[in-house]
Amino acid sequence: MSGVTTARCLGDRNYIDVTLRNKIREGAVTGPDLIVCGIGMKGRHGHGFVGMPHSGVEEFRRTCRENMFHGVDILKMFITPGGAVAEGDFIPYFISYDEIKTIVDEAHQLNIKTAAHCTGGEGLNLCVKAGVDVLEHLYSVTPDQVKLIEDSDIWVDLTSGIVLDPEREPMVPAAHAENTRKNREYSRSCLENVVRSEKIRYTLGTDAYHGKLYKELQFTVDMGGKAIDAVKGVTVNAAKMCGLDQTKGSLEKGKRADIIAVGKNPVDDVSALKDVFFVMKNGSVYKNETR
């Protein structure tokens, strides 16, 4: 109802996401088309609440193949902790290069993509080297790493509200909120370097901040990004990142009729996407409020 007709679900337990995706496809449940990853993969000692713990290449390989047996659309790995850190702080990573490369190779054997939860640090460098398709978050990406990403084919999915929106603070433990406040401006400067890059391909998403996608566009514009690029980040470029641009992401003959309407041109004012009064998915109308 907020205007999201396609979404990625990047980690769940017990294949709940796969089941829900299939029910939506069958018409048994109403919802956005879902791109799902099944079991997210983390290091046994690492971050990733919705991930399951792994140690060693073969454990990761086994879960990759189990996920693909269940028909997932993408493989998800958790590389670093979440949240903001201070400039210069060490950022640990919990999956080795060989483990990351194994996930990438297994995915690409079946022509599906990989996504990595990664805020920065050496783990980011390993993801680029291993050929990960999408980097999520990047709250602590350095200028050198921005250049590294610019020279690669990797996509970036920004979830800026997690660290930039004070309204999220009541949703998290007090210590986490305090840490975010303390390091917010450094994270903002890191994200600004991404959105102001002329070369990085980025999209916009949410993470434990659902229903607030419209805010991500405003954060992007406030950090110096172009409004048209922010809009593309939730439409045509999002479809390209997900490998769906042949059927979704733009209004063209032959593509699926996934259409929303708002009160004014979001390229002029991205806040217009806060109030969506018409939603069509694949030619069926789900919301049509009088204006």
Protein model, in words:
The protein has ten helices and twelve strands. By secondary structure, the protein is α/β, with parallel strands linked by helices. The protein has one domain (6-253): Metal-dependent hydrolases (TIM Barrel). A seven-stranded parallel β-sheet has the order 4-3-5-6-7-8-9. It has a three-stranded antiparallel β-sheet with strand order 10-11-12, with no helix packed on it. Strand 11 and strand 12 form a beta hairpin. Helix 2 (57-69) packs parallel to helix 3 (97-109) and helix 3 (97-109) runs parallel beside helix 4 (122-130). It starts with 5 loop residues before the first strand and ends with a strand.
Specify the structural class.
alpha/beta
Low confidence ranges: none
Number of domains: 1
Distance between the termini: 16 Å
Shape: globular
Give a count of the beta strands, DSSP E runs of length 2 or more: 12
For the record, the CATH class is Alpha Beta
Strand order of the largest sheet: 4-3-5-6-7-8-9
Level-2 CATH architecture: Alpha-Beta Barrel
Can you identify the CATH superfamily? Metal-dependent hydrolases
At CATH level 3, the topology is: TIM Barrel
Number of helices: 10
- Rg, rounded, reads 19 Å
- Helix coverage percent: 25-40%
The secondary-structure element order is EHEEEHEHEHEHEHHEHHHEEE
Strand count, sense and barrel status of the largest sheet are: 7 strands, parallel
Query: Taking all residues together, what is the mean pLDDT?
Result: 96
The fraction of residues assigned to DSSP E strands is 15-25%
